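Help wanted!
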Amino acid sequence: MQYIFNPIPEQFKIKEKIKQCNYLVNGNLIKWEGDFSPVYSTISSTAEYKPTLLGEIPSLGKDEAIMALDSACSAFDKGKGLWPTMKVVDRIIAMENFVEEMKQKRDIVVKLLMWEIGKNHTDSQKEFDRTVDYIYDTIEAYKKIDRDSAKFQKHSGINAHIRRGPLGVVLCLGPYNYPLNETFCLLIPALIMGNTVIFKPAKHGVLLISPLMEAFKKHFPPGVVNILFGRGRVLATPIMESGKINVLALIGHSSSANALQESHPKKNRLRLVLGLEAKNPAIILPDADLNLVINECINGALSFNGQRCTALKIIYVHEDVKDEFLKKFSTAVDQLKYGNPWEENVKLTPLPEPNKPDYIRSLISDAKDKGAEIINENGGIYCENFIYPAILYPVTKDMKVYKEEQFGPVIPVISFNDIDKPLNDMAESNYGQQVSVFGKEAKKLGPLIDTLVNLVCRVNINSSCQRGPDIYPFTGRKDSAFSTLSVHDALRSFSIRTFVASKDNDENNVIIKDLLGSKNSNFISTDYIL
Ligand code: G3H
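Answered by r_m:
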């Protein structure tokens, strides 16, 4: 396929390179005097294909990692720090001020999302707006949690004032496919619950953090948010080896999560909040509405070129409808428009990882060698930064595309006669996030749902898999996740129940009343945040 170049509209051009010349530690934006790494987009700015240089980031090393760790530890200050002891209402005010300033950076962050990760304009805008909404929803959810704990309980002669408190220092690492949203879905609840954080942006989608650096510095006390740039292994390993990290919050691959967890000398002290790989299946029953199936499978398998952890990554179709499904699905896939992220109605966009087209091609050729065919006409055609989605059928268990999370535009299809086939495959697989089931008959769907809910954590009826609405629990079994992330559950994941207890006698009750009235404690409070 010939690389297609359309002129870039003025408002989307990168006019100046972004040099991220500092990092945030201890409330200071520290100027970096060492080496820098270039940040390239796989999108070309010229008719002859050439990756575009967007800017550069500091290549920080172990010393800076340890500085950031020390800064986060000092800000927590063994539980005495300003932030972990602050009144809930004041942490909320800091967060509200931060999000107000963040909103002013929408245009530049959206533009960088398009250039850095190739996400189309509509979805880039959605990612930004969804993140802002998530912050406001988190604030509301925290107010509710706080209101629910603005009381004393009495059991067996003991009065108790129970709240949720921070865990300590959090290391936060996000993914490239949602470098703003998914990272902030970790960072924001971790912060608001009173933890201090070290945060390293994803490899792709890193410059879009630059416009937000000042706001992080301005709205949080020194050391509460520390932002590092550089390679994950170089920075995260010494931080973990220190044993001072209380929570590892990571959206990425289980291999990274396992390696980092292994580096921690006291694993029993480490809480894990992990969103990992998945291979969500679609199961198409014979009575499914195929037009609906096609729409949902297009969105499910190919939104953002399949680079979503919730993407449909394997399709099981009943033999009775296989031929019709493959025909209609191929036609629909081949109609999807390819182009740069700012082009109108574009569905398929350049892949941000330079080696991705080759990886997808290797999956296709392995499958073909083992007996699968590319079903759609455009499937597999490629250029420097793109590969057209290929529908592969029949896929068998010995193929790489069956086993690996492709995280890109290739769609393996398997047919079945017996529903035990997809169920057994799911039970055997390493993944356990979600499933989509397409069908109508309650008699068939009912027992199937009862099994599927025990294999994954969300069963979608006649719709593709997705994380949202963010108010619902987002989690998975096996290698797909650890801990639950909804707006409410994330606040729980980044905190622990901690309480003050006193025997119910006159002396103690006078002290408690005094504590409540004098406001000497920020923890003991029955104030009601509206
Ligand atoms: O990459 C995984 C994301 O959490 C998926 O979220 O279903 O909203 O695209 P989404």
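OP: Thanks! One thing I noticed: The pocket of glyceraldehyde-3-phosphate is lined by residues 177-178, 182, 308-310, 466-468 (CB under 6 Å).
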